[in-house]
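Figure 6 in text form: structure in, sequence out.
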């Protein structure tokens, strides 16, 4: 369900978000940057909704339980990958990325720093007066909303790779000069395909998370053994 309305005062927006059912999307037009910032400040930390902003358009998505399950499970996959491969990892979850000069901001479902992990250890928020450092991978779970319209914001941020997952597949996108293009494998993990990731996500729904994580770890070790 998607609801689109014109500009409303910040307190009315908060009220609308508070009554937004799981799986629903609220779209507001002609929202000034100051109202977007005020909304984030008023909501504080730990709110469930995912909020994006682009040149006056404010979009609020309320995730379903399966959305949260897959987001967390992909984070578990990433931890196993980086531990087994001896790589650094910092995850900032759904941290808000916004920059006033872009007139845009968003919150990925989760995101991962790999090459630049050391530079953001201990960081939990960014100053919107300077461009935030981009994560190596951003994750978008598209069970309840369409994330492709947020790709231009990710491109401004300079995120080199996006994992986009819906109920049928997980797609990997690479950032190029022309924008994001779908790719078969991950830049960060060349042996890893979207099809393989989605297979293990689906297995977790029937085999359970612990068993699936053990199977995924064995598969990773097979792919990376010399």
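Output sequence:
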């Amino acid at each position: 369900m998607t609801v689109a309305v014109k500009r409303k005062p910040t307190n009315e927006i908060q009220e609308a978000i508070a009554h937004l059912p799981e799986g629903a999307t609220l779209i507001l037009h002609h929202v000034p940057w100051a109202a977007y910032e005020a909304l984030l400040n008023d909501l504080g930390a730990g709110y469930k909704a995912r909020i994006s902003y682009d040149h006056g358009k404010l979009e609020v998505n309320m995730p379903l339980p399966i959305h949260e399950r897959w987001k967390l499970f992909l984070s578990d996959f990433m931890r196993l990958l980086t531990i087994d491969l001896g790589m650094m990892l910092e995850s900032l979850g759904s941290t808000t990325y916004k920059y006033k000069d872009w007139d845009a901001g968003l919150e990925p479902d989760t995101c991962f720093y790999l090459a630049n992990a050391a530079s953001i250890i201990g960081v939990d928020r960014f100053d919107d007066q300077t461009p935030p450092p981009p994560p190596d991978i951003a994750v978008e779970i598209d069970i309840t909303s369409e994330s492709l319209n947020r790709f231009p914001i990710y491109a401004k941020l300079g995120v080199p790779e996006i994992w986009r997952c819906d109920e049928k597949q997980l797609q990997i996108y690479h950032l190029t000069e022309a924008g994001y293009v779908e790719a078969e494998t991950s830049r960060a993990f060349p042996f890893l395909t979207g099809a393989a990731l989605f297979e293990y996500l689906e297995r977790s729904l029937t085999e359970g998370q612990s068993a699936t994580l053990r199977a995924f770890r064995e598969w990773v070790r097979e792919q990376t053994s010399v």
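Caption detail: Confidence is low (pLDDT under 50) at residues 1-7.
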